[in-house]
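The protein record passed on below.

***
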Amino acid sequence: MGVQSQAKTPLRILPSAAAIGEHVAENVLERIARAKNAGKRFLLGCPTGRTPKPIFAEMARRLAESREDISHVTLVMMDEYLVSTSHGLDYASATYAWSCHHFAQREIAQRLNANLPRAHRLWDESIWFPDPQHPAAYEKQIADAGGIDYFLLASGASDGHVAFNPPGSSRDSRTRVIPLSEDTRRDNLQTFPTFGTLDNVPRHGVSVGIATILESKEAAMIVWGASKGLTLSRIAAAASYEPDWPATLIHECARREIICDADAHGARARVAGTSAS
């Protein structure tokens, strides 16, 4: 399976989620090493949930062998759930398994750092989240650090949301507090069954905007699993950003690639066949 072209953006079809992990991990670690050799920091835009897990697992495996230095890496996290407190909306506790802070620490930082000497590890201070009290400050923080070098992107299965940007999000939207749509909340319930019921899924989140992502220097939209057939179909059929399906933003990133597995590609074909009949 190789690279195909659909619309403006290359579509790479790989056999499995594990193969996607290998491909993307190699690309990201190569860019991280290049930045280190140039004496530059490296900003990696990160989602949470199921989609990036094979990538971080493969990065951790390779780092365990190479013991390369990632102390210059900053994780720019896309979003976080918000809960009501006496001070208004604030981060969900990092003790919750479904919180993005918990994911960043357990699934990314701890995995990547596990077999590295202390001087080569990712620093706690280098894991960034947007502040729900001052969301616009995230834009300045990113810009002052030189911008996001590589953004890993994932799409909602049922409505194409990216981070917490729902259908209808403006192309020029920025980091902000967002009421979460029911479709997004249902997708998140599937991602984190520990929520138990839909009622337990938070109704607000703080999230980077469409424009925030579009300003990254390079991006990859990762789509795997049979449940992602609809969103892959919508993304691949587009040629530019379509607000009713936010994941189509990939077509307007400076350097970009859509990467899917065989299951998602097969499901896409079935969706297309159903639509044609």
Remarks:
- The two ends are 27 Å apart (CA to CA).
- The chain has a mean pLDDT of 94.
